[in-house]
Amino acid sequence: MAVFNHISFDEHEQIVFCQDKESGLKAIIAIHNTNLGPAVGGCRMWNYESDDEALNDVLRLSRGMTYKNALAGLTMGGGKSVIIADPKLKDREALFRAFGRCIDQLGGKYYSAEDVGVSTTDIMIAHQETPYMAGLEGKSGDPSPFTALGTYLGIKAAAKHRLGVDSLKGLKISVQGVGHVGYYLCRHLHEEGVELIVTDIHQASLDKVANEFGAIVVAPQDIYHQDVDIYAPCALGATVNDTTIPLLKASIVAGCANNQLAEDRHGEKLKALGILYAPDYVINAGGIINVSFEKDYDATLSTKKVEEIYHTLMSIFTQADEQDRTTASVADEMARTIIEAAK
Ligand code: NAD
């Protein structure tokens, strides 16, 4: 397994492999860049098929956090962690305590929080071993509703730019993954009169959005070719790829999932087809923005900052049109300028 020559290695500052025999913890922490401040980014718990798959995920996700935090205007660097384990594991206390001890050894260079497969309860367990955890109960808490708010506003920006509409009323939107963020996103969209088409691999989550929001449920493999205005990827990454792009009928791809494009060139492919792509790390920054208010938590201030996502995306869409470039490359360049200036 290559590390420094890994395809997703991008001058990461530090990569830590953690193992704790007693609890069974196997984790990787990747600190991508700390120019703007200590690295902050969530912890993902997933049944990775190989160590290399986990390493690839944490390298890509941590880089994304550097760019996300920079474009959101936060004084935080980018990092991420992954735990290689079944996210449905029942007895989690020893594992998350061991994880907390690993984080603690980094002495505040990296702060962790929740991500896929990890809950606020897990974060509170790890917090018993280290102060370097964020998204704590009683403080900023669950970031998902804020990620959903930012994603909803980002979808509105995309609809305004691509379809020329101020309201989403009457639009059809497919949502892939109705977990923590997807659920709240569906609620916003339903309240604005959107026709929802949803999928997930977890039946109870689907039943909830079908019952509460009248969403139409389709099988996971059928989500791509739905006749919708907007496709919102809200599950795992790399769902925009060579296989799925030709199936899309939507003219906008805008959702909360991290690393939506399997490769950068898929951004070019979307552009060639006239499909507007809302860069993932810009539209899904609501949660980390909320976490950044952790110290003296103020939900009103946090919400105001999350609302800026609408304008950041508008500026990216406009520049991409003017310069005939992909939205992803415009966002990357904007983020890199901020990161370099902070050196
Ligand atoms: P989650 O685990 O609560 O939800 C993900 C959902 O996707 C689950 O319900 C899962 O069953 C479903 N899913 C998994 N594979 C699927 C498939 N093949 N087809 C359909 N559904 C599938 O996670 P979340 O916190 O809601 O995060 C969703 C995405 O948003 C992730 O990519 C995450 O990294 C990203 N994100 C989350 C936050 C946050 O605040 N939670 C912030 C930024 C980005």
Structure in words:
- Belongs to the Glu/Leu/Phe/Val dehydrogenases family.
- Keywords: NAD, Oxidoreductase.
- This is Glu/Leu/Phe/Val dehydrogenase.
- With 343 residues, the protein is of the alpha/beta class.
- The chain has two domains: 14-56 and 79-127, Rossmann fold, CATH 3.40.50; 144-341, Rossmann fold.
- It is built from eleven helices and twelve strands.
- The strands form two sheets. Strands 1, 2, 3, 4, 5 and 6 form a six-stranded mixed β-sheet that branches. Strands 9-8-7-10-11-12 form a six-stranded parallel β-sheet, sandwiched between helices.
- Strand 8 (195-199), helix 6 (203-213) and strand 9 (216-217) form a beta-alpha-beta unit.
- The longest helix has 25 residues, at 299-323.
- The two termini are 31 Å apart.
- Bound molecules: nicotinamide-adenine-dinucleotide.
- Residues 115-117, 143-144, 147, 176-182, 199-202, 205, 220, 234-236, 256-258, 284, 287 line the site of nicotinamide-adenine-dinucleotide.
In CATH, the architecture of the largest domain is: 3-Layer(aba) Sandwich
Averaging pLDDT over every residue, what do you get? 97
Report helical residue fraction.
40-55%
Strand content: 15-25%
